[in-house]
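# nightly structure sweep
# worker-07 picked up a monomer target from the shared queue
# config: single-sequence mode, recycle default, output format = C-alpha cells
# input follows
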Amino acid sequence: MYMGLGRSLVCAGILIVLHAGFSSAQHRTYLRLSELPYEGLPVDITAQCVIGFLMSCYGITRVAGEFKDISATSDMNRRTMDSLNNVPSFYHFAHRGRAIHSVIY
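# output follows
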C-alpha cells in the first residue's frame, strides 16, 4: 500500500511542478504582451513549486522502502577476520618480480 501511495505522490508532485513551470512561462508571456515590468513570480506559482517539490520528496522516501543501518558494525558482524584484509582490487601482478625472476632463473 505504501508503494502505491508513494508513487502517486511522486507523480502528483511532478505534475504540480510541471504545471507551475507552464504557469510561470504563461505569466511571463502575459507580462511581455501587456508591457508590464517583471517583478517576480506570483505567490501561487511559487507555492505550487514548493508544494510539488515537497510532495515528490516525500513520495520518493516512501518508494525507497526500508533504509539500511548506517553503522559499520552491522556489516562487520557478518565478515570473518580472513576476509577483512582480502581486497581483490589491491592485487597487482605487473611488478618487478617478473624481471627479477627472469634474471635469476
